[in-house]
Design a protein that fits this description.
single chain, five-stranded parallel sheet, Mannitol_DH_C, 6PGD_dom2, NAD(P)-bd_dom_sf, Mannitol 2-dehydrogenase
């Protein structure tokens, strides 16, 4: 927001975010130009965090702004008790979200109105199952984090032994998980002759649609093989790539919404960049998201590899040393004299050589693009958020590039260095002595292994759920051991400086 807007906002009243108040918002705030009361649902989305509301919901909203997709409105859902807090906030403001784009050249606010309801959070998920069983629901989307798909860490197959999965297989009509609820709804649709729906994964997983298919079909097969076969044959699970940097919301973001004259209890901030690449495989129709900038393609996997290896992998290159060295944000890491150059060198020399180009974008150009995005000082994206759930992110974002480097005989030292610094991070303290609060679903196990690895680095690299058989590779084992000892003995900054000088 420029200084004139800021001055005007300071003088203007703060308007509670409600449908009936949209006309009262300041003129510079974009808002729905469509009749929200005329919208009908076509999508249930499970996982209404900031990313969904700043990404998929925005694409649909922009379609609606152009007069399209009025029968594709979103009904929100969640399956964990903590989702109830977000539900209360969004229902209190008619499921509207203020989306604030933060760009170095200026900021802008837009009220997104494509979501029209949020289902109750309840044991057994009856309301969610009933809604997904309704014939007008043609897509069920999911944003539940990379670690939420019940993947066996050793085999990468379906984890049928997880307690929640065992529950859902034992009590299929009152499931705990989103996947159990989807299976239950599809059972009702099959019985009623309603037909299938598309299951659309929006998490950062390579082959995310294939993984979602594996989870849902495998769970169904535990109780009803015929239903599993029907789901596998009739439902579609398109792979997709999603990209937009969307920080967590806190006091700063609430105040920023106020600066635009809006009292929003769940605003979302994001960068001025979005990408959504989707396989055009929808068994029950879809919105024309391409009219709002999405890309439909039969070659999603190249886009996936570029984004996951370079952007998501690059995020780990920044956030992990940033956390150990007490650098609070990703933009701060990019400004750091060692961390920013470390990201640039590893991305260009150790990751990009193994990434294929996509239409209109080479890996080298993509590194330059994400370099500029990561430097955006207005995006207060914390190292803690980005470093979260490393036990899922490192196997998906970093380890594949290590394997590519080994096969090609190209450098892997920087990639192994970030793994060594992650092992140092998981010991639970920063180098200034401050505590790192638990930041992974398996934090206690990681901390125990990290402390043992301080004396015997092989213990860390032998974690098969993270590294598979990499610990048995002599080059990996020796290099990792040397780097971890360097990090502990001489400090992370010295280890980064040595790498950059090499």
């Amino acid at each position: 927001m420029d200084e004139l807007m800021k001055t005007q906002a300071e003088k203007a009243p703060i308007i509670p975010l409600k449908t009936r108040h949209l006309a009262q918002l300041p003129a510079h705030v974009l808002r729905p130009n469509y009749d929200r009361s005329a919208l009908t649902p076509g999508i249930v989305h499970i996982g209404l965090g900031n990313f969904h509301r700043g990404h998929q919901a925005w694409y649909l909203h922009r379609l609606m702004q152009a007069g399209h997709a009025m029968d594709w409105a979103i009904i929100g859902a969640g399956v964990r008790q903590y989702d109830a807090v977000m539900r209360d906030k969004l229902l209190a403001q008619d499921c509207l979200t203020t989306l604030i784009e933060l760009d170095p050249s200026g900021s802008a606010a837009e009220v997104v109105g494509s979501m029209i309801d949020y289902l109750p959070i309840e044991q057994g998920n009856a309301a969610l199952i009933a809604q997904m069983a309704r014939p007008e629901i043609r897509i069920v989307g999911m944003t539940v984090t990379e670690g939420g798909y019940f993947i066996d860490p050793a085999t990468k197959g379906f984890d049928a032994a997880h307690a929640d999965i065992i529950h859902d297989a034992t009590y299929p009509e009152t499931p705990r998980t989103a996947f159990g609820a989807i299976v239950a709804a599809l059972r009702l649709r099959r019985q009623a002759g309603t037909g299938p729906f598309t299951c659309l994964c929006c998490d950062n997983l390579l082959g995310n649609g294939d993984i979602l298919r594996q989870t849902i079909v495998s769970l169904a097969r535990m109780t009803d093989p015929a239903l599993a076969d029907w789901i596998d044959a009739e439902c579609s699970f398109p792979n997709s790539v999603v990209d937009c940097i969307v920080p967590a919301t806190g006091a700063t973001e609430l105040a920023l919404a106020h600066s635009f004259g809006i009292d929003d209890h769940a605003p979302v901030t994001c960068e001025n960049f979005r990408q959504w690449v989707i396989e055009d495989a929808f068994c029950a129709g879809r919105p024309d998201w391409d009219l709002a900038g999405a890309t439909f393609t039969d070659d999603v996997h190249r886009y996936e590899a570029m984004k996951i290896r370079l952007l998501n992998g690059g995020h780990q290159l920044l956030a992990v040393p940033g956390e150990v060295l007490s650098v609070a944000t990703i933009a701060g890491c990019m400004e750091h004299p060692l961390i920013g150059p470390f990201f640039a060198k590893v991305a260009r020399q150790e990751i990009a050589p193994h990434v294929q180009p996509v239409p209109d974008m080479t890996p080298e150009a993509y590194v330059a693009l994400i370099h500029a995005r990561f430097c955006n000082p207005k995006i207060i994206d914390t190292t803690r958020r980005v470093a979260f759930d490393g036990s899922s992110r490192h196997p998906g974002f970093i380890v594949p590039s290590i394997r590519d480097g080994l096969r090609a005989g190209t450098p892997i030292e920087g990639l192994l260095l970030v793994e060594a610094i992650w092992a140092r991070m998981c010991a639970g303290t920063r180098e200034d002595g401050s505590q790192i609060t638990p930041n992974d679903p398996f934090w206690s196990d990681l901390t125990m292994q990290a402390m043992k690895a301080k004396d015997d680095p092989q213990i860390w690299i032998n974690m098969r759920q993270i590294y598979g058989d990499l610990g048995q590779n002599d080059q990996v084992s020796a290099t990792f051991a040397r780097l971890l000892r360097s990090v502990w003995d001489d400090g992370t900054a010295k280890a980064l400086a040595d790498y950059l000088a090499g």
